[in-house]
Design goal:
The chain has a 7-stranded mixed sheet with strand order 6-5-14-15-16-13-17, sandwiched between helices. Strands 8-2-1-12-19-18 form a 6-stranded mixed sheet. It contains 13 helices and 19 strands. It has about 400 residues and is of the alpha/beta class. The C terminus is likely disordered. This is FAD-dependent monooxygenase.
């Protein structure tokens, strides 16, 4: 009887767990090595567009995630004073892309993915590195504090500052600072009703969206030097930057505590990698193609990567060929959108806002147009789930 192929996944985030679940479903023996003490991510939400949901259909949890998440699309784009520049609705998004855009807490998605794996497949508090990427004639070797593991496939899902990427491509310059930092909160805001929105101001944006469990997910971004910190606390920094913006932003800030606010500088990979594999090691997600969050596609592209990798796990050159052109294009579009929505010149902002308003009157909202060619992607495998995407089925 032949031995089951072994895959080692370095990184237990969304991309790594999706890859592990897809490879396990395909018959591989999978081990996930996560350096943190648990799989639970630091609190924030994730937007999943139809491309990622169709990828999750392949491993059988697409409908589960649709049920757990809030549909997005009812709302639009506003100015700091509250004027609507562009409106959109969830049904229009679902009709345009063959399924909904949804929002849920990252921890919820992590739990659903982890439940697809055998109980002993995930090892936390383990620092792993690639000792040898292997080749066609020998397995890859992964070094851990408890010794080395041999693998027919190593999946490097170790994030934007990937140590595995540096081993595979030591001459690549790595990520660069995108020019802005982000803040995120997930909190209850009792008594506040609002339409989802993203609001663009000079060199700043803010977004507010309801989660299905009643909490509010809010995020902000601002052009600022790298590695900055508030002189007091990050909630106070948000009050200074956004406290006079339209409702419900003041109410969200009033409900937030300093410890609720997460702040992270944004980095992206400006120079594409020459490949997403070397030997028996494949990179996915931020390790391969980190991008600004301005399209909300970082996690979505990682999920796509994972499903395509499982499909091509025996031919990593085919995986690179399938993923590198697409993710490079999506990452470049995210950079362009960042330049547009983080614009600081007031004359340019006036022209931009007028153009957005005019375009939205003649066709689909900018929010929907930005997903053309992205959200309509379909996985190479047949799905296992029912793909409930009919309009109104929320």
């Amino acid at each position: 009887m032949s031995r089951a192929k072994r895959a080692v996944v370095i990184g237990g985030g969304i991309g790594g767990l999706t890859a592990a679940a897809a490879l396990h479903r395909g018959g591989l023996q999978v081990t996930v090595l996560e350096r943190a003490g648990s799989l639970q991510p630091i609190g924030a939400a994730i937007s999943l567009s139809p491309n990622a949901l169709r990828a999750l259909d392949v491993i059988g949890i697409g409908d589960e995630i649709r049920d757990l998440a809030a549909w997005q699309g009812d709302g639009g784009l506003r100015t700091p004073g509250g004027r609507w520049l562009s409106r959109s609705d969830a049904d229009a998004a679902a009709e345009r892309f063959g399924g909904p855009l949804v929002l849920l807490h990252r921890a919820t998605l992590i739990d659903s993915l982890a439940a697809l794996l055998p109980p002993d497949a995930v090892r936390t508090a383990v620092t792993a590195s690639v000792a040898d990427p292997g080749d066609a004639d020998r397995p890859a070797r992964v070094r851990t504090p408890d010794g080395e593991l041999e693998a027919d496939l190593v999946v490097a899902a170790d994030g934007i500052h990937s140590a595995v990427r540096r081993v595979l491509f030591p001459r690549h310059p790595g990520p660069v600072y995108s020019g802005f930092t982000t803040w995120r909160v997930v909190i209850p805001v009792p008594g506040v009703r609002f339409a989802s929105h993203e609001s663009w101001g000079p060199g700043r944006i803010w977004g507010t969206h309801p989660l299905k469990d009643g909490r509010v997910y809010a995020y902000a971004a601002a052009v600022t030097p790298a590695e900055g910190h508030a002189p007091d606390d990050e909630r106070a920094e948000l009050l200074r930057r956004y406290g006079d913006w339209h409702d419900p932003i003041p109410a969200v800030l009033a409900a937030a505590r300093p410890e609720d606010v997460l702040r992270h500088d944004v980095h992206h990979i400006a120079e594409p990698l020459p490949a997403y594999h070397r030997g028996r090691v494949a990179l996915l997600g931020d390790a391969a193609h980190a991008m600004p969050p301005t399209l909300g596609q970082g996690g979505n592209q990682a999920v796509e990567d994972a499903i395509v990798l499982a499909h091509h796990h025996a031919d990593l050159a085919a995986y690179t060929a399938a993923r590198l052109p697409r993710t490079t294009a999506v990452a470049r579009q995210a950079v362009k959108v960042a330049r547009l929505n983080m614009m600081s010149n007031r004359a340019g902002i006036a022209v931009r806002n007028a153009a957005i308003t005019a375009l939205s009157k003649t066709g689909p909202a900018l929010f929907l147009r930005s997903f053309d060619g992205i959200a309509d992607w379909r996985p190479p495998q047949s799905p296992y789930a029912s793909q409930r995407t009919r309009l109104g089925e929320r």
